[in-house]
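Posting for a labmate who doesn't have an account.
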Amino acid sequence: MMKQLIFILSACAGLSLALCVKGQTAAADNKVSESITFSQKPNGPAVYGIFEGRTPCSEISRQLGAKLPADCDHLKWQIIFFRDSLTQQPTTYLLTTEMFEHKPLAGKWKITRGTRNNPAAVVYVLETSLPGKSVYLLKGDENVIFILDEKKNFMTGDRDFSYTLNRVHKVLHLSGQ
């Protein structure tokens, strides 16, 4: 009887907690964060956006064939998307992370539609110089993108890091200020 009571109370508490937890907020609530840079920041009509975040190491490095130290717990990401300033069509990107010996990945990007579960989803595809490897990013809204696996499925993070990148506004920090 006591075990059943504990089970019922635990189930009720879990259900209550699940109802209180909120997922990604609505687009109106997502604000662009500021991110400090110590070098000249990219700007102008050719910059579509700058997205940053931190992800776990293992899954994404395995997916892209990058070799990382065994003790790597997270990667810092920065992707700068460029577009044609007249047509607004995607042109190139610059991906900076600890993968690939700290050398930025650069290439073309395009906008496609469809994931495994949502044929209407907007997906950014980063074409890489890595044979048969592309990076798929699901557009959550104007300020949030999610890194997808090679089959365009969501990737699951851990308790500390996710596969989410947020739009940032770079703020130049001059030394001595």
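Reply:
Got it, the structure tokens are right above this. The chain has a mean pLDDT of 79.
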